């Protein structure tokens, strides 16, 4: 798989970081909730760091 | 024998300046059909058909294009089932928007991936059918009408080219199709960017489908709905497959760019909200199957008012009312 494909691979998306972001967004869809810009910014930043760390490992580990 | 003895396959191509109009007989078709109703030109131009042709051509040129055919194969076989359900011969049939052809192979006498029905392929546009009135006994169309801009007109043209007592059997994507993808993208885009734009095509509602078929002149309509769920490793694999099927978005109002952050966010939301037990994510394809007939005197009609010989009130005594010999029913 190309480096690009390995970056988008699903192990990252199965991580706790992804689940936390997903749960935050899903919670906003409950009755009375309201989703606005950056409502889950903290969780997304955590996800982005996870993703960057995994990407760095993938690129370093690959040829 | 219930299969069409001859088959025309109509594949997608917008009007090209190079081909002389007379050769296609288009003048005869378009002069005979005038669009009824007054829909404004704006609502009839949702999709960039030129782009759709390019997307389909790109998909066909990929290595192993048939690995994306699973959905169309399945729906094609279900349309063929419906053709078999009708106890009639169809000497001449048209497969509209056929792609690589997913229906005719199921109408063979024996199992095979190629059709044994003699076939002619024609490159044309679903909205401008190059056939004369009363040509076909059967018209089938599987999963291609959802990219048509003027659907009322396309259905009218299908009705026009059918012979009296001919039948149209079609399958189109319904409103619940890819709702998981639509919702995930909507939520992620709202959270990341403060607003969202449509990424999934608008689909025809099932009520509207009935009305459109009626307006086009079809009788004895049936519309039924089916859901096919396909599981994918994740949202990106789903989007890759949609692109491979030639089903990428081509609406004029599509956003040119989807930010990587938004894609990552959407994939995380998709997984959290919809994933299966085994970690895969489902995608729903809702299919509407429609059957409509072109009028012929031999077809059953509602009885005349006042011609009833029994009343509903006597339903309780139905055994007494039925002629002897039929009581076992």
UniProtKB/TrEMBL annotation, chain A:
<dbReference type="GO" id="GO:0005739">
    <property type="term" value="C:mitochondrion"/>
</dbReference>
<protein>
    <recommendedName>
        <fullName>NADH:ubiquinone oxidoreductase complex assembly factor 8</fullName>
    </recommendedName>
</protein>
<dbReference type="InterPro" id="IPR034595">
    <property type="entry name" value="NDUFAF8"/>
</dbReference>
<dbReference type="GO" id="GO:0032981">
    <property type="term" value="P:mitochondrial respiratory chain complex I assembly"/>
</dbReference>
TrEMBL record, chain B:
<dbReference type="GO" id="GO:0016491">
    <property type="term" value="F:oxidoreductase activity"/>
</dbReference>
<dbReference type="GO" id="GO:0032981">
    <property type="term" value="P:mitochondrial respiratory chain complex I assembly"/>
</dbReference>
<keyword id="KW-0809">Transit peptide</keyword>
<keyword id="KW-0496">Mitochondrion</keyword>
<comment type="function">
    <text>Arginine hydroxylase that mediates hydroxylation of 'Arg-111' of NDUFS7 and is involved in the assembly of mitochondrial NADH:ubiquinone oxidoreductase complex (complex I, MT-ND1) at early stages. May also have methyltransferase activity.</text>
</comment>
<dbReference type="Pfam" id="PF13489">
    <property type="entry name" value="Methyltransf_23"/>
</dbReference>
<protein>
    <recommendedName>
        <fullName>Arginine-hydroxylase NDUFAF5, mitochondrial</fullName>
    </recommendedName>
</protein>
<keyword id="KW-0489">Methyltransferase</keyword>
<keyword id="KW-0808">Transferase</keyword>
<dbReference type="InterPro" id="IPR050602">
    <property type="entry name" value="Malonyl-ACP_OMT"/>
</dbReference>
<dbReference type="InterPro" id="IPR029063">
    <property type="entry name" value="SAM-dependent_MTases_sf"/>
</dbReference>
<keyword id="KW-0560">Oxidoreductase</keyword>
<comment type="subunit">
    <text>Interacts with NDUFAF8, leading to stabilize NDUFAF5. Interacts with NDUFS7. Interacts with PYURF (via TRM112 domain); the interaction is direct and stabilizes NDUFAF5 protein.</text>
</comment>
<dbReference type="GO" id="GO:0032259">
    <property type="term" value="P:methylation"/>
</dbReference>
<comment type="similarity">
    <text>Belongs to the methyltransferase superfamily.</text>
</comment>
<dbReference type="GO" id="GO:0008168">
    <property type="term" value="F:methyltransferase activity"/>
</dbReference>
<dbReference type="GO" id="GO:0005739">
    <property type="term" value="C:mitochondrion"/>
</dbReference>
């Amino acid at each position: 798989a190309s480096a690009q494909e390995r970056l988008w691979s699903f192990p990252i998306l199965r991580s706790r970081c992804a689940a936390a972001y997903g749960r935050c967004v899903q919670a906003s869809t409950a009755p009375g909730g309201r989703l606005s810009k950056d409502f889950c910014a903290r969780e997304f930043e955590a996800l982005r760091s996870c993703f960057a760390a995994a990407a760095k490992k993938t690129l370093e580990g690959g040829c | 024998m219930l299969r069409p003895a001859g088959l025309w396959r109509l594949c997608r191509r917008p009007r090209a300046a190079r081909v002389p109009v007379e050769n296609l007989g288009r003048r005869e078709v378009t002069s005979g059909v005038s669009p009824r109703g007054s829909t404004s030109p704006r609502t009839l131009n949702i999709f960039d058909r030129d782009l759709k042709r390019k997307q389909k051509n790109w998909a066909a040129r990929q290595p192993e294009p048939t690995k994306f055919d699973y959905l169309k194969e399945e729906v094609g076989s279900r349309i063929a089932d419906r053709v078999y359900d009708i106890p009639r011969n169809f000497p001449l049939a048209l497969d509209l928007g056929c792609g690589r052809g997913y229906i005719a192979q199921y109408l063979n006498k024996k199992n095979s991936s190629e059709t044994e029905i003699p076939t002619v392929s024609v490159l044309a546009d679903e909205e401008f059918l190059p056939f004369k009135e009363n040509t076909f006994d059967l018209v089938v169309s599987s999963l291609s009408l959802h990219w048509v801009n003027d659907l009322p007109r396309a259905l009218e043209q299908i009705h026009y080219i059918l012979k009296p007592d001919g039948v149209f059997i079609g399958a189109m994507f319904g409103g619940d199709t890819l709702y998981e993808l639509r919702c995930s993208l909507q939520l992620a885009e709202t959270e990341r960017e403060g607003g969202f734009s449509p990424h999934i095509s608008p689909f025809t509602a099932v009520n509207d489908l009935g009305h459109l078929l009626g307006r086009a002149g079809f009788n004895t309509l049936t519309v039924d709905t089916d859901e096919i769920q396909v599981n994918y490793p994740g949202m990106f694999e789903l989007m890759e497959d949609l692109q491979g099927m030639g089903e990428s978005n081509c609406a004029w109002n599509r956003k040119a760019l989807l930010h990587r952050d938004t894609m990552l966010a959407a994939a995380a939301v998709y997984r959290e909200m919809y994933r299966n037990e085994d970690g895969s994510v489902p995608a729903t394809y809702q299919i509407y199957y429609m059957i409509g007939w072109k009028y012929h005197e031999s077809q059953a009609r509602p009885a005349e008012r006042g011609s009833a010989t029994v009343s509903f009130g006597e339903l309780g005594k139905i055994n007494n009312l039925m002629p002897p010999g039929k009581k076992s029913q």
